[in-house]
Input
Amino acid sequence: MRYRSSRRESTAWSREFWILLIVLAGMPVGLALASEPAPDAEPETATSQATAAEGAAATPEPSHQRFDELQQRVEGMEGKLRESAHARKSADQARMEAERRLAEAMQTLEALRANQADLEQRLSNCESARTQLDEALQQHNAASKMLYRVRPGDSLALISLRVYGRSDQWQRIFEANRHQLANPDRLTPGMTLVIP
Output
């Protein structure tokens, strides 16, 4: 009796195992149910049982093949997930590096702006000093005008040649001395002329 009971459990277990494999392999459910006898059906004959046993023996190969395919697909998906995680990590690192560089660039920009303001202030100070120097130079030039005492036989062209090294600058001398010269050709010896 015990032998029959364990044999029934073994048969029931092997039927459930094959049904589970068939379902997992994606085979139609109708084929899996066809291997179990219906409650109202007649007991199977030895021939039909042998055919069912052959079908069950033939089923494991496609089931194992299907299982291997599913396992390969899972491994492929895991590989893609690893690649995706690696790409995300690389992208995060690149983003953090870009943010660090941006922060450094902003600090450099602020330092350059501060330097620019300092340079603009210094340039303004230099321009102001230059203006003051120009004014002082003009005053000095006005004060340091040369005086020339006219000699007998002098003309404005001759004086220009002596002072400037060129005789064509006589008009400058005439314009600077208009207050005392009515005519550029009439010079009186002993008169003092301002040489600009």
